[in-house]
Amino acid sequence: VRAVDVIAAKRDGEEIPDGALREFVLGYARDEVADYQMAAFLMAGFLNGFSHAEAVALTAAMVASGDELDLSALSGPTVDKHSTGGVGDGTTLVVAPLAAELGMQVVKLSGRGLGHTGGTLDKLDAIPGMRTELSGDELIAQVEAIGLAVCAQTADLVPADKAMYALRDVTATVDNVALIASSVMSKKLAGGAQAILLDVKVGSGAFMKDPAHARELAELCVGLGEAGGRATGALITDMDQPLADAVGNATEVREAIEVLRGEREGRFSDLCVSLVGHMAALTGRAADAEDGITRARGALGSGAALERFRRFVEAQGGDPRIVEDPGLLPQAPLTHEVRAEDGGRLAAVDAEAIGRAAAGVGAGRRRKEDEIDLAVGIDFLASIGDEVEAGGIVARVLANDDATAEAAGREILAALEWSQAPVDPPPLVHAVIGERLGGT
Amino acid sequence: VRAVDVIAAKRDGEEIPDGALREFVLGYARDEVADYQMAAFLMAGFLNGFSHAEAVALTAAMVASGDELDLSALSGPTVDKHSTGGVGDGTTLVVAPLAAELGMQVVKLSGRGLGHTGGTLDKLDAIPGMRTELSGDELIAQVEAIGLAVCAQTADLVPADKAMYALRDVTATVDNVALIASSVMSKKLAGGAQAILLDVKVGSGAFMKDPAHARELAELCVGLGEAGGRATGALITDMDQPLADAVGNATEVREAIEVLRGEREGRFSDLCVSLVGHMAALTGRAADAEDGITRARGALGSGAALERFRRFVEAQGGDPRIVEDPGLLPQAPLTHEVRAEDGGRLAAVDAEAIGRAAAGVGAGRRRKEDEIDLAVGIDFLASIGDEVEAGGIVARVLANDDATAEAAGREILAALEWSQAPVDPPPLVHAVIGERLGGT
């Protein structure tokens, strides 16, 4: 099959046969199909769409373009979790130890990446001594011993995705459900876990602003996971406001420790428990999600999850004393309190603007080469529906200087809408997707 | 304007403003916009279409990407002619001297290129001694002296088209009317002539198989020429059978000489006369096309056109004796006669298959680096509607060996359909396009 014929068929709205699509993607990974040919193909697919069978073949070909993590030495059940990304969305720090405590094995390959705050690896960097580069053998041994590892990707997983993602970014072909889903799921499939739970965010702080699109993405991802032979499910969850209070790096670690201690309740804690409950149901470690959620909540209350986190930090060379003394984490020199002007009931939050404000004080990267300041960030204290008096505190900015802090404070206030009438808070979990979770 | 935003706008079906489109194309010519970005843009435009204003801006930007030929030193009127290509379509050899004889100045930049036979330059190469590389000064001086020059492009005309054409070929974005028209017309506009006549072919041997598509292309080309300030018109002409009898290189030169001598009538001669008549009307050298056609026919009958051709050959270093003695042109070692099996009335010809048969004996190139055999080819003697007896000659194959010649003979016979009932020959000129020609 010639590359130009695959492009022409996609252009003409035909369904590309599995074998031809696979050859095209693998050819691209081998530099035999040119960037410009892949770009034309992606645009044709963007405009004409991809069938479910095409998305399955595309995902399988992307997985086949590189190595796959071999988790067969683990006793299992292995499980992975992926969030499509949002603001204050550091669930891995809580979910991974909690899932391990419920008898699952969590192998989480994370990244640094671009965004309002750093990626999970940046957050772990805030823990003194923590190593995020593990060899394959170290990874397997640690997961078998303590049930979890969170580290950088070392093997050459899914090189086709890496190249295609970079290409999509500069050819206006990012926002297509099949391309997004195949990018997400190819990485999860190559990661080797037997079960995969997706946390698909929807709302003002998410890539997906629209619930119907989020559902379409979630359903396709679950379908691709199942086609890849993995127990897969998805939660569609709210990102119409920051998930956690903390938006930053060290500050998100601090909040995670408080949640693991059972001392901090709220939306972030609730979502972590819900995610773990559904992971337990997917892996057979709970009878169903409700049972899993009850057990996860118990592990938080008993201190067992916190102890699991401590062992995880220790295993990867981090200072375990941070569990008792979060003051050992990097601290920003100043805290600026952001107060409501007129107050009222918090009616809406532009969550993305809160993320940008955090990036503005130095918590994120715009370009790969940017340095992150691990100490700075925002603690956003108000939730939609809360009543706040005029002059009441809505956020604390953790910053290096007054000018930056005050600018972030103004951005935060501009991101809020107030109401004098009562406001219902949005549901935390909009929908559960996947037959294995009894979802729709 | 960022390139990715131009791509996104085209993807979303928006009309790109002139300035942004110009910047995008010029950026591409300067290597600031990447091949993969142009490929994504071309595919988006292929699927969403280009408006007339976009085609105009695209053409202007392509012209601006390189040099333009400066013909201001010529007394004029200058005229150019372009055929979209077919089989036995060597009209330039007759049209250029005939137009010069009617007082027009013809500057024809030609190519070698790929195809069933060589390009116009290859055909000229069949004339011993003929030079096709002229400097700019030589070109101007020759045209001012004798009214015509046919040579290779030396200046850096329309580099954006060259790059885009190569890209379209490997990204399945060739067959789009706006892209074809802007490619054709940018080269014609950069060529500098005041008047442009297009010969848009339609039929089994043409790129355009469908009359509606040919008309759409012709109308857009005429619109782009007019927008570029040139007197422009188009004929839509038949390519449901080879235009000339001769399909090859030396053999096409031989046939052209016979036509210029006024000794060979038929479709090829008729079309050359019609093209020149319309060129005369466009440039004001005739009152209208009919008047131009009458004058062109007169120039063939008087021997004036042949003399003009002789001066042209001499001016470019060729052996002028070929005009009297076509035997000086390269001769194939053998001639194989192809005879009708059952005979009847010739009802249809797969003209492209005749072209492929000519290429099969060595008259064309498949790849740039292929060598052409200037002596070989096909003389295809039957026209649609002709009655041929069983065993009557339909073609002569000019070849180097029997096996090749016989294979071509079989291909020719397979390309013919016969009827026992009378068959009307197709019209030679389907339509005249362009207000200046009184066309529709």
Report what the structure shows.
Two copies of one chain form a homodimer. By secondary structure, chain A is an alpha/beta fold. Chain A has helices at residues 3-11, 18-29, 35-48, 52-64, 92-101, 120-125, 136-146, 159-170, 177-190, 211-227, 250-260, 267-283, 289-301, 304-315, 351-361, 402-414, and strands spanning 78-83, 105-110, 148-152, 195-202, 231-238, 246-248, 334-339, 344-349, 377-380, 387-388, 393-399, 416-419, 429-433. A six-stranded mixed beta sheet of chain A has the order 3-2-1-4-5-13, with helices on both faces. In chain A, helix 10 (211-227) links the parallel strand 4 and strand 5. In chain A, helix 9 packs across helix 10. The longest helix of chain A has 17 residues, at 211-227. The mean pLDDT of chain A is 94. The A-B interface holds A 3-5, 7-8, 11, 34-40, 42-44, 46-48, 167, 169-173 and B 3-5, 7-8, 11, 34-40, 42-44, 46-48, 167, 169-173.
The oligomerization state is homodimer
Task: Estimate the helix proportion of chain A, in percent.
Answer: 40-55%
Q: Characterize the largest beta sheet of chain A: strand count, sense, and whether it forms a barrel.
A: 6 strands, mixed
Q: Secondary-structure element order of chain A, as H and E?
A: HHHHEHEHHEHHEHEEHHHHEEHEEEHEE
- Count of DSSP E strands of chain A? 13
Q: Please state the structural category of chain A.
A: alpha/beta
Strand content of chain A: 15-25%
In whole angstroms, the N-to-C terminal distance of chain A is 39 Å
**Main interface by residue count:** A-B, 25 and 25 residues
Mean pLDDT of chain A: 94
* Uncertain stretches of 5 or more adjacent residues of chain A: none
- Kindly provide the radius of gyration of chain A, computed on alpha-carbon positions and rounded to a whole number of angstroms: 22 Å
Query: Biggest sheet of chain A: strands side by side, in what order?
Result: 3-2-1-4-5-13
